[in-house]
């Protein structure tokens, strides 16, 4: 019996595509190191808006010319730079966020997530999956946030990363939820005030409170002043496991609950329940996983593994958030998708 050449070709093409997809995943660690090295060398800033040869870039970065040429070709293969002619490169559109002088810069995030401290904990992913426990504390003798407190440079990079990754979602929050019904919004774990600044800019009569640890709010004054909303905002430092400000009628938790296990999430929510008035609203801004995996966006699932390995937290489905809220005295009344298609939603809950 003769084999159909067309059928054989189709099957082989499908098989090769699956093979290439798996190989690309295996090379993921190398990709992150290539991008992280580019960020640490400041290549995007050195390139700027210009085309530059690899020898010129090597002199500017103090690197070996031949080795840097190979790094640049790898970056070109990843479509972060473009080789315009042999040995000459310019930034591609996807590489622009590696520049530190852009408002959409992601350079701090790249430096954070390719930092040796985080990479070492990733080596223990199998153990985290076997035990269900984060491996970060076992490696460093303290949890992730305790480690940041002992390493000011990394803590500063973490805060910068949170600012960079928060801004796109922060801009969607005030156009995805109507804050006009409220008088004071309290951003719990609000860091440098990026999220609250966007909310206040979208609601001129609203007042706000940024609440976080002393190191978390260290740069909040500058952020709120630059946004022109400092006169309508107060900055409070404290511990959200102990107590939160009690003068708001809307409480925002953005990317806070996914950092923690269920028990500590319930504690945070209980502190919010103690502070919130009966007519108030709790707004949880997180990635809300569908009940069945959505393969169009792997990011929240990979973040979920990061939470497992480094912090002991997790991404959750709506039903899992409902369980947490119920235990703390809240009922979820609505889930508002963000205006643009992202994995993030605004979970609205009321006291019960």
TrEMBL record:
Keyword Membrane: no
One GO biological process term: methylation
GO MF, one annotated term: protein dimerization activity
Catalytic center residues: 258
Keywords linked to the UniProt accession: Methyltransferase, S-adenosyl-L-methionine, Transferase
Pfam families for the chain: Dimerisation, Methyltransf_2
Source superkingdom: Bacteria
Domain O-methyltransferase dimerisation span(s) in chain numbering: 23-94
UniProt domain O-methyltransferase C-terminal: residue ranges: 122-331
Entry protein name: Methyltransferase
């Amino acid at each position: 019996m003769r084999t159909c050449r067309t059928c054989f070709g189709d099957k082989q093409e499908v098989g090769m595509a699956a093979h290439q997809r798996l190989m690309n995943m295996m090379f993921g660690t190398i990709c992150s190191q290539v991008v992280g090295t580019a960020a640490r060398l400041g290549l995007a800033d050195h390139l700027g808006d210009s085309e530059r040869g690899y020898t010129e870039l090597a002199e500017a970065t103090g690197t070996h010319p031949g080795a840097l040429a190979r790094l640049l070709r790898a970056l070109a293969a990843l479509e972060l730079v473009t080789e315009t002619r042999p040995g000459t490169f310019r930034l591609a559109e996807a590489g622009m966020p590696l520049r530190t002088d852009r408002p959409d810069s992601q350079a701090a995030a790249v430096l954070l997530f390719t930092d040796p401290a985080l990479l070492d904990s990733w080596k223990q992913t199998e153990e985290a999956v076997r035990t269900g426990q984060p491996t970060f504390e076992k490696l460093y003798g303290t949890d992730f946030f305790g480690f940041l407190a002992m390493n000011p440079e990394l803590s500063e990079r973490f805060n910068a990363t949170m600012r960079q990754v928060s801004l796109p979602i922060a801009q969607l929050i005030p156009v995805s939820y109507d804050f006009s019904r409220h008088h004071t919004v309290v951003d719990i774990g609000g860091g440098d005030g990026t999220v609250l600044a966007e909310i206040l800019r979208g609601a001129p009569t609203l007042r706000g409170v940024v609440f976080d640890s002393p190191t978390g709010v260290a740069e909040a004054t500058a952020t709120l002043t630059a946004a022109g909303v400092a006169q309508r905002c107060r900055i409070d430092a404290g511990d959200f496991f102990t107590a939160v400000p009690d003068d708001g009628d809307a409480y925002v938790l953005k990317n806070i609950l996914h950092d923690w296990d269920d028990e500590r999430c319930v504690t945070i929510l209980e502190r919010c329940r103690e502070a919130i008035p009966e007519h108030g609203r709790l707004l949880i801004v997180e990635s809300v996983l569908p009940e069945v995996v959505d393969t169009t966006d792997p990011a929240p699932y990979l973040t979920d593994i990061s939470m497992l390995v480094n912090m002991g937290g997790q991404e959750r489905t709506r039903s899992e958030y409902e369980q947490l809220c119920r235990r703390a005295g809240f009922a979820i009344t609505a889930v508002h998708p963000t205006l643009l298609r992202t994995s993030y939603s605004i979970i609205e809950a009321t006291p019960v």
